[in-house]
Design brief:
The protein is an alpha/beta fold. The protein has a domain of 67 residues. The protein has 8 helices and 11 strands. The protein has a 6-stranded mixed β-sheet, with helices on both faces. The chain has a 3-stranded antiparallel β-sheet with strand order 4-3-6. A two-stranded antiparallel sheet has the order 1-2. Strand 1 and strand 2 form a beta hairpin. Helix 7 packs across helix 8. The longest helix has 18 residues. The protein starts with a helix and ends with a helix. It holds the Pfam family ABC_tran. This is ABC transporter.
């Protein structure tokens, strides 16, 4: 079944029968840089409200996949988006040090012509969602790494984006902060019904956050395998002790190392 055929189809999940609505998909995607073939015929889809994680070797083309969806690189094939509002959260935040938090978050709204007062009002709502309203008028350089990533998440969503592309968003912080961000993120996207395509190098992060995991091959990237993650959402810290979580982490590592040996 291709991505278009999934629109409006019905399937059963852990909660019963629900409508499957395509939010994002790529079909037969091919990307080359000059004569270097980076992505070779990738097909994937993300349903509305779903989190799909993309795993693969370093340099295989995961970030290029996101760039193609955003229209930042040339490609052949098809990119399907069920929304004009797409947020992007890169590996390193692009916050402006000379601006406070609320003005960093409101910047996309200001660039779209919204008044400063209206933009700040909306930005404050999103700072509340990431639990940083008390830091709204503090300078970015005063924030910890985890706080900066929360501001970056608020800015990615402030325009009302319902599709979020993320490139290693939590990789720059320590392990404890990373887990805290993952928990906040899981609760937020479940509550707001946000669709996410998440690029990560971490098998544990992919299993902890995602509904499905797409494993890519060495460059040129092709889809090697897709794993379903049968864990309840939003995710909680107790999931780390569940056999399903532990077995799937082990299974994915086995798949990765079996191909590299």
């Amino acid at each position: 079944m291709d991505e278009r055929e999934q629109l409006g189809s019905r399937t059963s999940d852990r909660e019963g029968v629900h409508e499957r609505v395509l939010a994002l998909g790529v079909k037969n995607l091919v990307v080359s840089y000059d004569r270097l073939l980076v992505i070779d015929g990738v097909d994937l889809w993300v349903e509305r409200g779903e989190i799909v994680a993309v795993l693969g070797p370093s340099g295989c083309g995961k970030t290029t996949l996101l760039k193609a969806i955003l229209g930042l690189v040339d490609y052949t094939g098809e990119v399907l988006l069920n929304s004009e509002r797409v947020g992007y959260m890169p590996q390193r935040d692009t916050l402006f040090e000379w601006m406070n938090c609320i003005d960093n978050v409101s910047l996309p709204l200001r660039l779209n012509g919204m008044s400063k007062r209206e933009a700040r009002t909306m930005a404050m709502e999103y700072l509340k969602k990431v639990q940083l309203e008390d830091w709204a008028y503090r300078w970015v350089y005063e924030l910890s790494g985890g706080m900066r990533q929360r501001v970056s998440l608020a800015r990615a969503l402030v325009t009302g984006a319902k599709i979020l592309l993320m490139d290693e968003p939590f990789s720059s912080v320590d392990a404890q902060t990373r887990r805290s961000l993952q928990l906040l993120f899981s609760e937020l996207v479940a509550r707001e019904n946000i669709t996410v395509l998440l690029v990560t190098h971490s098998v544990e992060e992919a299993v902890f956050l995602a509904d499905r995991i797409v494993l890519l091959s060495q460059r040129p990237a092709r889809v090697r395998r897709i794993f379903d993650v049968e864990l309840k959402k939003p995710r909680t810290i107790e999931i780390l002790d569940e056999p399903i979580y532990q077995k799937l982490v082990s299974r994915i590592y086995q798949e990765i190392f079996s191909s590299s040996s």
